[in-house]
Amino acid sequence: MNRRRSLLIAVVAAVTAAMLVYGLYVLQVNQVEMQQTVPVVVPKDFIRAGVLIREDMVELRPVQKGSYTSGMLTSLDEIIGQETLIPLGTKEPILKWKVNRYHMLPNERQATFQMPKEYLLSVSNGIRAGDRVRVYVSGTEDGSSRRLFDEKEITVASVKSSANVEVDNPKNPNLLSKVEGDKEKMYASRLEANGAIDQINLNLTENEWLEIDRLCSSKKAKLVIAFSSSSILTGE
């Protein structure tokens, strides 16, 4: 009887030891697999070009280290608020060159419109390409003035001088300072420019442009385009 009990105990101990060894093996394998992968940002679903990326559109997905390249994004913070330059495939790692944070291109609902000179009353001298501006209308039929587009700020696609050259500080370009995240240089670049603003192009939806055209085509109402400090303070 004692012999059978000893044999049973030995068998139970052997099975327990085997399970423990197997559990440690599985844990080690999982750790090795985790060490051999890199989390990268991928779209949850297909994203079209010209779309502003929100947090609910993307997620992190592990890829093998052998498939990882330095151009892949590894943090959700790097992608939120950026705009797609080309379509992004479902679950495909997002490469840095496929997105842009500065929104100089119109999105999927917009087009770039050059504001006719006869529609303009004034344009702030400090405006540069990539800035956000506020658009006001002055001299409407009822004699009132107001801000257009429900407090929305509009993105400037470009500002040109009379020589058809982008208005900027050649020694300290605003966009270069923006890419570097240097707000002091962004501010300083506006103090000197290679010309006065003669043409301004805005990224607008069709309805926004039609509203401007409706108000200004009578030549009574005119636009006031004002620089918004959010262009520098938020780095957008």
UniProtKB/TrEMBL annotation:
CDD domains: SAF_CpaB_FlgA_like. It comes from the Bacteria. This is SAF domain-containing protein. It comes from Paenibacillus violae.
